[in-house]
From TrEMBL:
Protein's recorded name: HTH-type transcriptional regulator YofA
Record family assignment: Belongs to the LysR transcriptional regulatory family.
Organism: Pelotomaculum schinkii
Molecular-function GO terms, alphabetical: DNA-binding transcription factor activity; transcription cis-regulatory region binding
Lineage start: Bacteria, Bacillati, Bacillota, Clostridia, Eubacteriales
InterPro entries linked: LysR_HTH_N (IPR000847), LysR_subst-bd (IPR005119), WH-like_DNA-bd_sf (IPR036388), WH_DNA-bd_sf (IPR036390)
TM helices/strands, residue ranges: none
Source domain of life: Bacteria
Amino acid sequence: MNFEYLKSFYSTVIHNSISKAAADLHLTQPGLSMQIKHLEGEIGAKLLIRSNKGVELTEEGKVVYNYASTILSIKGNIERDLKNLQENNPKLIIGSCKSVGEYALPCSIYIFKKLHNEVDISIELMNSTEVIEKLLNHTINIGIIQGNPQKGNIVTKYLASDELVLVGSASNTNRVITIEELKEMPLILREKNSSTRYLAEKALQEEGVNTEQLNVIYDLNSPEAIKSSISAGKGFSFLPKLIIKKEQKEGSLGQIQVNDLKITFDYYIAFRKDYVFTQYEQLFVDFIVSNKRGFC
């Protein structure tokens, strides 16, 4: 079986789209379709049916998909172990949501590095949705995310709890507002596919408020850019408490309480259920989930 064709099939199912999978794999759509057709020829059965809702697995396709993640993980494990034998220093690549990756993780990585100086560590920052996509596409092996994705082929371990709060500049904080007052405030939100945005919208929908009723002035994909905008008095935003600790202590940013609105969530370490950790990956996972270590 051609592994490249299998990966193309697997990515198409994960994205539920030929176009999205092709972009992720850096292929043309006709090129990706041809690879899937070749795989179907090798299997001797049709695996996918295209529809206006994306792609749908045939019964044969479901069987192949159920094995695809395991097969690709085993292939990745072999390639990784062979590569490690050829390199002097073991590698550790971590994909992290920005809330943890920019604020809490660097301190933990510093401590871990002091304990295991021989490990080369790399952190890739992205939103939680992208972390899950990279795990499923076998681009990374360890992820740190906001919320539990509830995907059968992703395993999670609890790391810490946090709360999403409405944040304003120092002169606008330490007060309580109503949902109706919130609708009039200029809001700066995270990008649409981020977990922070999803959590805020979900909580507001439960209070009968949708995004169209809010005064959203713009979206940003950087928590730091959002904090800078708030400090400059340009608006307000929903941000995790974890990332505003420093500014709260300094008095430059603070929390605004919204009546009847409390948004709590958890951070998790995530990985594929059939993935076998290297020695140092296992050490890192044990380190980061232990009560004595965790986030600094």
